[in-house]
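Give me structure tokens for this 262-residue protein.
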Amino acid sequence: MVKCDRCGEEVYMPFRCNYCGGYYCSRHRLPEFHECTGIQRGQGSVNLGSSTGYRSSGPQYYTPRKRYSFTSLFRFSERELRDLGISLLLISALPMSMPGFFRFRPVIMFGIVVIFAAAFLLHELAHKFAAQRYGYWAEFRLNTMGLLITLFSFISPLKLVAPGAVMIAGLMYGDDYGKISLSGPVTNIAQALVFLAAGVLFPSGLMAALSYLGIMINSSLALFNLIPFGMFDGAKIMRWDWRIWLVATAVALGLYLYPSIL
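Here you go.
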């Protein structure tokens, strides 16, 4: 067992920070949660704000934010592109471990892979672009524990997609953190709604099958990330505004249950 460098909790499989090299429990794995000293490009540690998520009016507490221009949102470092590429390769291969996958028609197999990859990629890019839009440094990074969980999914009936996460640095408002966290699940909900509309327009045939898969994959990923505790997006959204979390969770759950009640 290894002790978390932040709180001292003993954990069997600690998270190793890619920036400072320390080992942390799941609650303190992100740089903003363990006052990481290794982020050279960041602007300081993240401040989660009050439990209500409202901003303090004191100018000494928060620094002004510099919003990124539209074109700067689409800049990626070489390391980030490498980590995203590795993640996409793993996630694209993950559906192939599903029972009966290779009995599908080739176009269905290709569709499943694309839906899986898009659900993950757009979720993470939503976090990145939302954080950058608010003026924070944000890049995707692979995570050792997440990689192990994703690799375990190849032999497990439960498929968990968590090879890494978007790391964010900067003095952060509580409501900004909630909005950035919300952007990922909302992106999956939006994709599920697009597939729902496609299924309504094309109720039979190939498009109907892909629509069903798109709804299930994206709604499942949204619900998974909306879990309201630990390191999940749901915990950060709850800390900001529980009503928004409730609405997002209800919509994702409704989409998840929709195919079964048809």
